[in-house]
Structure formats: C-alpha cells, structure tokens
C-alpha cells in the first residue's frame, strides 16, 4: 500500500558510526610540467659545472702539451749535435721558451672557449703555483754553470719542472700531478746517471712524457 508521505534516507555517513572510519579519497596531484623538469636539470648541471670550475682548473690544453713535446723532440736531436755544453743548454732554453709559449697560447684559447678566463680563480692559482719552481730552475742554472756543474743541469731541470707541474696540477685535473711526479722521477734518474745520458733523459721527459700525457689530456678533457 502506498504511503501518504515520502520516506527520506537520513542514514549518517560511515564516519559517524562507531567503529567505522570515513576515508576521503585524496585528489591526485597534477603531473609535473616537462618544461619545469628540464629547467631544473639544466640548473643542476650548471651549478655542478660551476663548482667544478671554481675548484679546479680544467682548461689545460692537451694539444698544447703535445706541441710542447714535439718541440722538445726536435730540440733534443739538435742539441745532441752541439759541440759544447753551453750550446747544448742554449738549444734547450730556446726550445723551452717556444714550447711554453705555444702551450700557454693554446691553453688560453681553450680557457676562453670554456668560459672563465685563464687568470681568474683556479687558473691564476695554478699558474702562480707553477711559476716559482720554473724561476728557481732558471736562477739555479746560472749559478750551476758559474761553478762548473753543467752535468747537473738536465736532472735539475727535470726535477724542478716536475715540481712546478705537480704544484700547479694540485689545482687542476688529476692527471697533471701525475705528469709532474713522472718528471721528478726522471730528474732523480738523470742526477744519478752518467752525464752522457743527459740528453736522453731530456728527450724522455720533455718529449715523451709531454706527448703521452698530452694525448691523454686531449682525449679525456677535450682538446
């Protein structure tokens, strides 16, 4: 039989009943924008590269190091034919000036392509760490020649150059200190070997080590 009035359903929600927990379904969060995600990745990459450049000098030119080694190979064969020790030294001094000029020029070009100039931050510190040992080698060479100790020149040059590279390399990529220590080891060998082998030690160091490590630097760190 039909009732004269409408029955309304006034049952309380489940959460209002004893022992029943009312669970509200959370709205799903909107998907992350691909553009914002890509921008965040780019920012993180930029920050990481900036911190790396601020902490170490990465613009050492492998091509420049190879060029320095090539100049040293030519100098070694020219120096071997010189009749006196002073002329032998003169050949190597000229070669050293040319090699440093070429290597530094290519390093400056690489530094500019990477962004920060050579004389800012770690680049300036690396150069300042390298320079004292080279200057000390030049001054000690003059004193050594004056007292007639020319047979020590090759070992001293290798040792002090290696010390400079090791000191400057502490602020650069990890392979540079290894190059410096290799030069120092050759320097110790030259100081203890017969003077007749001096030119071969110079060829092995300034020629062979430069070319070998230069190839590794160019391959790992881009030119």
Describe the structure.
Helix 2 (62-79) packs antiparallel against helix 7 (198-221), helix 5 packs antiparallel against helix 6 and helix 5 packs parallel to helix 7. The chain has helices at 34-55, 62-79, 85-114, 122-146, 153-169, 175-192, 198-221. The protein has one domain (57-221). It has 223 residues and is mainly alpha-helical. The termini are far apart.
Break the fold down into its secondary structure elements and pairings:
Layout: H1 34-55, H2 62-79, H3 85-114, H4 122-146, H5 153-169, H6 175-192, H7 198-221
At a glance:
This protein has 223 residues and is mainly α.
Overall residue-averaged pLDDT value: 80
Helix content: 55-70%
Task: Please state the overall shape, judged from the principal axes of the Cα atoms.
Answer: elongated
| Low-confidence blocks of residues | 51-55
**Class by alpha and beta content:** mainly alpha
How big is the Rg? 34 Å
Element pattern in H and E: HHHHHHH
| Percent strand | under 5%
How many strand elements? 0
Number of domains: 1
The major β-sheet equals:
none
Number of helices: 7
The N- to C-terminal Cα distance equals 97 Å
């Amino acid at each position: 039989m039909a009732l004269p009035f409408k029955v309304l359903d006034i049952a309380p929600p489940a959460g209002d009943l004893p022992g029943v927990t009312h669970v509200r379904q959370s709205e799903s969060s909107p998907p992350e924008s691909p553009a914002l995600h890509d921008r965040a990745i780019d920012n993180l990459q930029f920050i990481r590269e900036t911190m790396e450049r601020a902490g170490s000098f990465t613009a050492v030119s492998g091509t420049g190091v190879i060029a320095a080694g090539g100049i040293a190979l030519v100098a070694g064969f020219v120096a071997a034919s010189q009749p006196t020790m002073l002329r032998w030294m003169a050949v190597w001094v000229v070669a050293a000036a040319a090699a440093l000029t070429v290597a530094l020029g290519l390093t400056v070009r690489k530094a500019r392509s990477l962004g920060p100039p050579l004389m800012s931050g770690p680049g300036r510190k690396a150069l300042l760490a390298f320079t004292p040992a080279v200057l000390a080698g030049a001054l000690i060479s003059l004193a050594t020649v004056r007292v007639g100790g020319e047979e020590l020149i090759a070992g001293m040059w290798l040792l002090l150059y290696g010390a400079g590279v090791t000191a400057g390399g502490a602020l650069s990529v990890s392979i540079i200190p290894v190059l410096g220590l290799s030069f120092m080891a050759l320097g110790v060998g030259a100081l203890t070997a017969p003077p007749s082998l001096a030119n071969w030690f110079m060829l092995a160091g300034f020629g062979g080590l430069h070319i070998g490590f230069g190839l590794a630097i160019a391959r790992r760190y881009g030119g």
